[in-house]
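ok here's Gamma-aminobutyric acid type B receptor subunit 2, seq below lol
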Amino acid sequence: MNEDGKAFGLVGSFIVDSKLFLEGIKLARPETRADLPIPGNRVRNDLTDVLYGEDIEISDTESFSNDPCTGVKKLKGNDVRIILGQFDEQMAAKVFCCAYDEEMYGSKYQWIIPGWYESSWWESWINSSQCLRKNLLTAMEGYIGVDFEPLSSKVIKTISGRTPQQYEKEYNAKRGDGQSSKFHGYAYDGIWVIAKTLQRAMKYLNATNRHQKIEDFNYTNHKLGKIFVDAMNETNFFGVTGQVVFRNGERMGTIKFTQFQERKEVKVGEYNAVADTLEIINNTIRFQGVEPPKDKTIIQEQLRKISLPLYSILSALTILGMIMASAFLFFNIKNRNQKLIKMSSPYMNNLIILGGMLSYASIFLFGLDGSFVSEKTFETLCTVRTWILTVGYTTAFGAMFAKTWRVHAIFKNVKMKKKIIKDQKLLVIVGGMLLIDLCILICWQVVDPLRRTVEKYNMEKHLLEFARSLKQ
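and the structure came out like this:
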């Protein structure tokens, strides 16, 4: 709750490696609990500064005081996947109800919320959430709660000579049926901190200033105040709440992580601020997918390439065409002295077949793209396939044109005088066409050679629809 008495909500997405997203939460200090009298804006700003300081980007922030559904919808629209929430139990029930309606749960999302709620807190607020019980529990499944560790789980004797477990047993026995506070361990260690601080300050005063005693302290004595602060910062002992160490006047405690699994909260790990270590307990943390959720929809650019099955089919048809052309060439050469074959200009026929075979060969080269060859080879390939297709087409078309021209020249003779146009003349025509092509190709290669370029396309419609389905 903030100072205005309204529930405060903060949600954000952290762009981090999804396997290490807990590292971002371990940075939260115990002082940022929502049940302490710290204004909501201060908590949010403090956490934001810490996250930015650790190079963790916050992609979106939403706040609300009553209806969180609008904010949840905005988060979904911004493709937020890892969400940190800061709100009380009543607001948490409403948020998870909205999350269920927006389908923001499951293997694609990770909710991280305060862990200081009462045990089975959802039972008290199901009615206020206007959500079916099973729907609320479905949306809550897998959330991670973050809270300070009220008592250390280590079985080690503390400064008082008791283990944390012995202290808790004795505390409960003396407390009886009275109401318990989760801060009792910190209060107990706090008394020891005061005692150790006073002891260290007294030793310092006795060793350095015999004229000033600790009894002379008052709130205007800044010198004694600094001695107390320095003495407290030197405090280092094992208490019932763990290792008691101060840094810049702040207690370095232990943060525990719990996860909501099958309608109950299970402790899955803890962060030791003193040693700066994060420990996951025996792989108890469960993700609803095969791996931790990604922080956003990942769209990878892929090289648009020719379909391998399509290339294989066309290559097979091309080979059949080249085999057929080779058979025609063999037949034409073998029977070149036959009257009918000889009358059809076998040399021109051979050129037509060779031109066709060159054009066939270019199909193989045009099908080789960046997925088959390197960038440097691809540039060379672009030039080679252009030359082969051009020469092949000109050879086949030139020979066919020469034969057609000869028939035209013969029948154009109105006097029907015998006119002989030998194949050598036709070869000159074909050679002339090839010479023109070669001149153009050489100039092209010298002045403006082919270069490999990469064009970026917009996401294709079916891929865009697929990406949108992932967001849902």
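fwiw Residues 13 and 82 are 5 Å apart (CA to CA). kinda neat tbh
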